[in-house]
Amino acid sequence: MNNVVANPGTFRFLHAADLHIDSPLRGLSRYAGAPVERLRNATRRALENLVDLALAEQVQFVLLAGDLYDRDWPDFHTGLFFREQMVRLGRAQIGVYIVQGNHDAQGTITRELPLPEHVKVFSSRSAETMRIDALGVAIHGRSFPQRAVDEDFVPDYPDAVPGQFNIGMLHTSLTVGGGIHDTYAPTTLPVLKTKGYDYWALGHVHTRDVVCESPRVVFPGNLQGRHANETGPKGCELVTVVGGQMEARFVPLDVVRWHQLQLALDGMDSLAQATQLIAATLADATRGAGDRLHALRVVLTGRSALHGTEAQQPGTLEAAVHAAAQDVAGAELWIEQVQLRLASPIDRARLAQGEDAVAELLRLVDELAADPAALAAWTAKACGDVLHKLPAEAKTDADWSTPAAMQALLLDAEATLLARLGSAA
Questions:
Q1: What is the pTM of this model?
Q2: CA-to-CA distance for 13 and 238, rounded, in angstroms?
């Protein structure tokens, strides 16, 4: 990507945002064998990768557009780690410019550490300009004074400095159409353009988005995905300005990459065939992504006889996914979750129209599923009349406490019945 800019200087910089250092990862104890330490340290390793890139590319400065941290530090270790990485940049005479966002706003981070002199944090009281005269660069920005900011900061930003390469830094809930997604310094693209800057370094949105090419307006996304809803490559923008030409490219820096993969198993009745398809899909998704850890959520869909296999032996398909992951060479994989959205190939509607006991049972399932009160009453009666009579080894510890849980168990029971009918046919 090339843009003609006002300033004829030569320099390079990195633009990153939403580091969320030491972001808490909840619920990992649910996953047997989860690479807990790799996941917990991922945000730190991604920042180290950012610093490594800045040193390798010999950039002149780094822009951090908010949410360096995820919350108030429980102790000083988080702040000291960040400071250590900034010291590494300072030793290479690389300047750092920061606007604080909603997660690290003034008053949100209560502990304080003095930052090195080459690290500049923009004021939270009003927008200001910091100049790098040796490069012909003017950087404009404002930090959040508190977590919730519902005003548009941009109208009060200084005008572009003539003859300079002007950069605006902002943590914002910008939307191109002018709507407000949330209350974090909302603004619009037309408002940004009124300032006459060459580059807008934005933060807050965790998905990379090049909002506009002229001027260049960019959300780089967060530096490291933190869960299964933050998928794909994560990293920063590397921008080079030479003789009035700006060139920008995205550089992935994540150490754990999250994926959500949906596989259709329509028509498949062979577990071996499904395992081969799953392994091929996992290999395609992780090919060429380096030595990072891949965390995958796999969703199996479609009408398949494997629906019956799973009903007869719960856990079969999840085990098949894990087996397929073991067969993928050249990549480190962790299966975060397997979701089953399979349907039986048996024509349930036709069966429900019959006059036999199966049809009667299916119609009862439909009635109960459509009426939570009736389902609760039926469940209570079943628990009272049946469960207490079962021997200890036959009793289940399944959850019957909510309508959703009861409905899930009811449908699971139906699936088991239909699977047995299918195998007997």
A1: 0.81
A2: 6
